[in-house]
Amino acid sequence: AFPQQVRIVEVGPRDGLQNEPGPIIPTEIKVELINRLSAAGIRHIEAASFVSPKWVPQMGDAAAVMAGIKRHPGVTYSALTPNVKGLEGAMAANTEEVAVFAAASEAFSQKNINCSIAESLARFVPLIEQARAADIRVRGYVSTVLGCPYQGEIDPAQVAAVSRELIDMGCHEVSLGDTTGAGTPLKAKQMLAEVTKAIPVQQLAAHFHDTYGQALANLYAVLEEGIAVIDSSTAGLGGCPYAKGASGNVATEDVLYLLQGMNIETGIDLQAVVQTGHWITRELGRHNGSKVAQAWGEC
Ligand code: HMG
Ligand code: MG
């Protein structure tokens, strides 16, 4: 059955901006984007990434971003952390939730974080222990759940196994990443059916990129199976530096429009998100990837 409420996890400031080509986006722009999104009613924003700036230069000012944002009560501002060094940076910046990221594909794991899946999981053990000891919640990502740019088809049983490990290690939720956006609705349902044999659907989120224009259809398919947490990116910002050709996440505006049409609550002001999407794409000199934003123009 469809959920009555959905929690949106806005990943534009991280997944979106990490991939912007060209000059480093000024910290103030990142901060203003996050502030506008929380003012629009978004309750969970992935704000930064404490990864190696050599690997992802756009996220090199993570500490300054976390220090600069206005923290609204009731809003979670989270950050990616690939290792204990990242966690230390996130903790110094008062981050209340962090996210570790693994993959269902060995090849993608190597390209993205320079280690095997097993090595990445082993690396997360001390990270999660230290985070939990400091009362910091940890989210887990599994990438390439519907296919890998280097390896092709991915066995849903592998997605289920990595997801289960992340939950057993102490992640409160696992976000299932269609990194390349190559998935289609039936495939998404089949993958989810396998994963929910290992983990209750209440602990899962959908993180779908829109490279092939399938993300909304895929979301509809998994909503029907009870997924109630959706990762999305305002204006469809982004891509993935280690998945060539991958376009951004599904646009937050378009997800909100879909959910409104289904009478599913989010508590978010769609018009304010549309305005924010127009603002940030102007600032970046970038195309607005949201269809709703294109249809409405400057509202
Ligand atoms: P490595 O080179 O194997 O690691 O990278 P290392 O430990 O040898 O460190 C190399 C250098 O990085 C050292 O500096 C470290 O100090 C530094 P040097 O001695 O050369 O001057 N370093 C760090 N600096 C800052 N913060 C840190 C950190 N760690 C090491 N946390 C590593 C391994 C994991 C660090 C690297 O591969 C990395 O940072 N990768 C990040 C890749 C990334 O951010 N990808 C995008 C996010 S994932 C994604 O987008 C998918 C997702 O959206 C879901 C989906 O769509 O599927 C989540
Ligand atoms: Mg992503």
TrEMBL record:
CDD domains noted in UniProt: DRE_TIM_HMGL (cd07938)
GO molecular function: lyase activity
Keyword Lyase: yes
PROSITE patterns: PYR_CT (PS50991)
UniProt xrefs under InterPro entries: HMGL (IPR043594), PYR_CT (IPR000891)
A Pfam family the protein falls into: HMGL-like
Alphabetical UniProt keywords: Lyase, Metal-binding
Keyword match Ligase: no
Domain Pyruvate carboxyltransferase: 6-274
PANTHER family: HYDROXYMETHYLGLUTARYL-COA LYASE
NCBIfam families: PRK05692.1
Name of the protein in its database record: Hydroxymethylglutaryl-CoA lyase
